[in-house]
UniProtKB/TrEMBL annotation:
The lineage of its organism: Bacteria, Pseudomonadati, Pseudomonadota, Alphaproteobacteria, Hyphomicrobiales. Pfam families: DUF8189 (PF26607). It comes from the Bacteria. This is PLL-like beta propeller domain-containing protein. Gene3D superfamilies: Fucose-specific lectin.
């Protein structure tokens, strides 16, 4: 499959290799997993697209093991969770595909625990949140699937608190934001589900501020960007919801700049990429919304390069994967948009 023929789903997954090179994963028109990567840390050129095989029905979720090997998870045609991994840190060859079982109805969300063990979350056929985890860091065997209950209506989002405890966020059947968390670092038991209120119309995007507090962003019923945050690091007290304005038509993507300021990206009603950022680390005020141009037809995905520059990926009107990046760490100017080729799909379940 050449660059011109490569095809991906609406949502790619981006991860940094242990040597500092970004790698992007997505589905092809053949429903195989395809990837493209930087050939040098934090810079071009990029490789050609290459296939990792498989027959998949969800967007992928990629994560790095504690020893530096990337691992990718996705739903198969049997609705089970499947995974594939690098056999060596930041390099091929890759393993074959292996099933982790289960019956999932959402994109998976994978993360590394503070002790190095990977854990994956997904919605089950009962709309509850289910999870599965490595029993040893960067290795099998894996646990069986276990339910965390709840009733969620979107893809879960997971992040790690500054004290090492995982916390999962998802939209509930009432369109409020709900969350559940480990009561001890990298271990059970888990809390009960708790509501953070709000009325959201997108999947949440979660990030940690430079002072250790989690902050969650989502689109509201007015299509503005709303956010809510922990009032203290890894604590149970949360702020009220606050609006950052704008008129967005995608899930938001949030990332922290190398100087500690959060920055959020979303598609506007004009299909352009827009962004807004904190003017001070982990604090208000926020900037006004600003356009980064382009003409995108997917949710954006944002990631930070190993040299501190942010980079954003999205599907263009030609269905190729496009990207744009900061020319300097934590500041403008931004590059122009550039194509990485491919033909992106809008729906991983489309016939």
């Amino acid at each position: 499959m050449t660059n011109a023929a490569a095809a991906l789903t609406h949502s790619v997954s981006v991860t940094e290799n242990s040597d500092g090179r970004l790698e992007v994963f997505g589905l092809g028109t053949d429903r195989a997993l395809w990837h493209v990567w930087q050939e040098k840390p934090h810079s071009g050129p990029w490789s050609s697209w290459a296939s990792l095989g498989g027959v998949l029905t969800s967007s992928p979720s990629s994560v790095d093991n504690s020893e530096g090997r990337l691992e990718v998870f996705a739903r198969g045609t049997d609705n089970s969770l499947w995974h594939i991994w690098q056999d060596r840190p930041h390099a091929g060859p890759w393993s074959g595909w292996a099933s982790l079982g289960g019956a999932i109805t959402s994109d998976p969300a994978a993360i590394a625990n503070s002790d190095g063990r990977l854990e994956v979350f997904a919605r089950g056929t009962d709309n509850a949140l289910w999870h599965i985890w490595q029993e040893k860091p960067h290795a099998g065997p894996w646990s069986g699937w276990a339910s965390l209950g709840g009733e969620i209506t979107g893809d879960p989002e997971v992040f790690i608190n500054s004290d090492g405890r995982l916390e999962v966020f998802a939209r509930g059947s009432d369109n409020a934001l709900w969350h559940i968390w480990q009561e001890e670092p990298h271990a059970g038991p888990w809390s009960s589900w708790a509501s953070l209120g709000g009325a959201i119309t997108s999947d949440p995007a979660v990030v940690a501020s430079s002072d250790g507090r989690l902050e969650v962003f989502a689109r509201g019923t007015d299509n503005a960007l709303w956010h809510i945050w922990q009032e203290k690091p890894h604590a149970a007290s949360w702020s009220r919801w606050a609006s950052l304005g704008g008129a967005i038509t995608s899930d938001p993507a949030v990332v922290d700049n190398s100087d500690g300021r959060l920055e959020v990206f979303a598609r506007g009603i004009d299909n352009v990429l827009w962004h807004i950022w904190q003017e001070k680390p982990h604090a208000a005020p926020w900037s006004s919304w600003a356009s980064l141009g382009g003409s995108i037809t997917s949710d954006p995905v944002a990631f930070d390069n190993s040299d501190g520059r942010l980079e954003v990926f999205a599907r263009g009107t030609d269905n190729a994967l496009w990207h744009i990046w900061q020319k300097k760490p934590h500041s403008g100017p931004w590059s122009g948009w550039a194509s990485l080729g491919g033909v992106l799909l809008s729906d991983p379940l489309a016939a």
